[in-house]
Design a protein that fits this description.
Length: 348
Amino acid sequence: MATIDLSIPKTARAAVLSGFNEKYAIRDDYPVTQPSELQPGECLVKIEYSGVCHSDLHIMKGDWQKKSILPLIGGHEAVGRVVAIGEHSDAGTVKIGDRVGLKWIADAVLPVSPEHTVSLSMEPSPNTRYALSSNRFESCLTIKQVSYINYVTPIPDALDSAAATPFLCAGMTVYKALKQSGAKVGNWVSISGAGGGLGHLDTGEAKKELVFKLGAEKWVDFKESTDLTKDVHAATDGLGPHAAIIAAGDARPFNQALLYLRMTGTLVAVGMPAGSALLNVHVPLLIGRSLTVLGSAIGNRQDISEALQIAAQGKVKCQYQVRELNELNEIFDEMESGAIAGRVLLKF
C-alpha cells in the first residue's frame, strides 16, 4: 500500500486571481495555513484533484451580479486528504488521513426557527458560507485548503479521487435538478448543457458523440436547428419533454424550453447566466399549458452522498480529462470558445 504524504509545507502552488478579466497567476510561494492557525471546527485538506467549472470562468470575468472578493484562489470542487484539524474541534467521524470532498458551499447553519426550515432541504441560508466568498477559505486551485470538518464529504472507497471530483459540484447540481424535476421512469428529460458539462452550451460533433456515449437517446444541436421547438418535439414523441433541465450559462435555452415543454412540463433552471438575464414568460402560455418553473441551486449533504454512492456502484461515470495547473488560463480560453467536452480536472 502506497504511503500517504500528510506533510504540511509553509508555502505551496496556487492559482491566484487579483482582478476581474485578468489571467490567473500561478504562484509557488502562496502561504499555507498551519495547524496552529486553524479555528475550532476547521480542517486543512491536501488537494489531489480539483475540477475547473464554468462558474470559475464567470467569476474570473466578473460577469455575475454578485462578485467575489479579490484576490482569491479559484475552484470549488475537489478531493483531497485531511492533514490537520483545529484544536478543540468536535471532529465527529472526520480524522487525519481521511479522503474527503470539498464543495461550493463551505458550511451551512441548520435552521433554528420556522422561517429557516427551507434550509433543511436546500441548506444555503442567511448564514451560509461559500467557498468563493471569503478570503479565509483558499478554495480549491491550490495544494492545501482550509475547510469545515462538519461539511467535508467522505469519499467512498470504491471511487477513485479523480472520478469522484466532478460530482462535488457539477454532478451533485445536476442530480439535484433531476430530483427537483419530478421526472418518472419513462419520461422524456431534455438537458441543455449536457455535452460540455454544467454551464456549457451543446453544439458540435465532439459533444454529440459524448452525450450518446453517456446514454442519451436523442440530440438536437441548437446551431444546426432552424426550428428548435419543432425538432425537440420530433425527438420526444411529438409532444415535447416532460422536464427540461437547463444547465447552460446562457439565457436563451431557458426561454426556448418554455416553448418546447409538453403540457404540465417542468423547467428546472440550474445554469447561471451572466449579467441580469431574464426569463421571458408569456403568462397565457404558462397558465394554458400548466407549466412549472423552478430553480435548483447546487445540492445539500444528502444529495452529494447519494450521488457519490450511485457513482461508486458504477451506475454513473463522468467523462473528464486530467491536466496541469499551469494550463489553467489556456483551459479557460478553451472553455469560453466551447472547445471542451466533459470536465477538466487539475492534478496536484
